[in-house]
Amino acid sequence: AGDKPLILSTWNHGLPANADAWAKLKAGGSILDAVEAGVKNTELDLTNLSVGLQGLPDREGIATLDASIMTGDGACGSVAFVRQIKHPISLARAVMEKTPHVMIVGEGARQFAIAQGFPLEEEKLSPNAQKAYDKWKVTSQYKPIINIENHDTIGMIGLDADGKLAGSCTTSGLAYKMHGRVGDSPIIGAGLYVDDEVGAATATGLGESIIRICGSFLIVELMRQGRTPQEACEEAVRRLISKNKDIKDIQAGFLAINKEGETGAFAVHPGFNFAKATNSGNVMVDSGSHFK
Ligand code: SD4
Asked: Cα of 205 to ligand 1 centre, how many Å?
């Protein structure tokens, strides 16, 4: 049997993010408010080098952010390749709620942010990111390496006590990516998908491998056809493996929940974990993986 309410989010930083999401829900916020508040915690976490403006930059030395948000009635919004914005998740929500569009990118997203009263941050790398970038520049080998053990993108999916779903996803993307590169996180259906009739899914890992299979949408559609969240995540990993070369260098992980509050998680390689908040607490859970 499942849990309601339920919040899942990727990686260790999911614990404090879940705690903030849970607090929002308990204070009377909607599940949408909860998944926004949760990942805002990570966007401000100075120890995180893959989310927020403190994240590792692209190969020009500029931090560019991607984020998306979605509710189970089909409403969604996203921003990509956006600079100087501390909370891209809130900007994605503004795209969803205040424009007729789903996705706004780059300079246009920055202008929209200004029009919406978002403060613009100074364009300066965090000390940790600057240090890492300086070191990378010595060889500036252009092969974005995905760290098998520790990705940091946060994807969060939640279900409230009434069975309503929402999700959020935010990242600074692959370190040392080409300028303008966009990953899966802001692509509705790739990094995030939510449908109140079925469930929700989110992804982390090498964005290109996830976009290629419309990973999160695939998982929701598999659940619609009767798979459990766990079966759907495992099937999506199999699909990802079948459509990507050099799989030993690719890590990707998926999280899913269905509308009954059952959960699933699976990754290509070992090391993926997630935080799970229910009425009985907020705990880290290790995901299984295709390769052992
Ligand atoms: C991306 N999926 O931009 C993101 C990267 C990621 O931890 O998950 N990093 O491809």
From this structure: 5
